[in-house]
Amino acid sequence: MEEVALKQWLAPWPKISAQLSNLLVGLKRRQITGSYETSRKTTELVRAILGTVRWTHARQLMDNIRLLGRVLIKAIPQELAIGNVIRRVLFIIREEYLNAMKTLSSQTLSQPSLGTILTPGTEADYTTPIKELKQSIMEGVSELVDEIENLHVSIAEQAMEYIHAKYAPSPSVAVVANGGLIAESGIQNIALAAKKFCIDVLNPVNDYVPPEFVTIFITNTGAYQPSYIYRLLTEYYSPQDYQLA
Question: pTM of the predicted model, to two decimals?
Answer without folding.
Answer: 0.81
